[in-house]
Amino acid sequence: MSKRIIKQNLDGKGLGIAVLSARFNAYITRQMSETTINRLENLGVDKKDIIVSEVPGAFELPLMARILVGRSDIHAVICIGAIIRGETDHYDFVASAATNGIAQVSNDSKKPVIFGVLTTDNTDDAIARIGHATSYADTAVEMVNAVRQAKDI
Fold first, then answer.
1. For this structure, is 90 an active site residue?
2. Distance CA 134, CA 131 (A)
3. CA 73 to CA 79: how far, in whole Å?
4. Is the pLDDT of residue 47 over 90?
5. Which of 18, 35, 87, 104 is the 20 to 30 Å CA partner of 47?
6. Sheet containing 113-120: which strands, arranged edge to edge?
7. Vertex 10 angle, CA 5 and 14, to 5°
8. In sequence order, what E strands does 27-138 have?
């Protein structure tokens, strides 16, 4: 019996990707979105096939992700946010809601919904991680292609 292997594929040609960003901490999230979009284009995703949207904060990401992932022209949604710990429990509630909500949308839709939400103790740590946004694009493209391969084997 031969093995059927799902191989990494970072070819974004023909894919529709939504980049959804929280406006809260926009000085961080806008740079993350730009980094993600640039990487998507480098992977072959056409500019016309990238939908960019913003919501007020990370708490609102799951609802808009659910709407965008329901579109037939969208193969994956990348959720971008920055939750920085403060002096109250608000951080814990927002981080938990965003994490659980994004995971649920992906599981329910059976489409990749990428968790690009930074959860840091301070602004410096968040700024230091802006460059990680390239991996959100890589993950979105790879997962769309992996899901397609898994359905075909």
1. yes
2. 6
3. 17
4. yes
5. 104
6. 50-55, 17-22, 76-84, 113-120
7. 110
8. 50-55, 76-84, 113-120
Marked catalytic residue, from 90, 103, 128, 131:
90
Q: Pick from 10, 27, 3: which is nearest to 136 by CA?
A: 10
Structure tokens at 119: 């959860």
Q: How far apart are CA 17 and CA 33, in angstroms?
A: 12
13-to-32, 39, 68, 112, 133 alpha-carbon distances in Å:
22, 13, 19, 16, 20
**β-bridge partners, 78:** 19, 114
pLDDT at 145 over 90: yes
What the chain holds in terms of domains, given with CATH numbers, is: 20-134 (3.40.50.960)
3-state SS class at 13? coil
Indicate the average pLDDT of the chain: 96
**Across the chain, where does the E strand assignment appear?**
17-22, 50-55, 76-84, 113-120
Cβ neighbors of 114 (< 8 A, separation 6 or more) are 76, 77, 78, 79, 136, 139, 140, 143
Q: How far apart are alpha carbons 86 and 79 in whole angstroms? A: 22
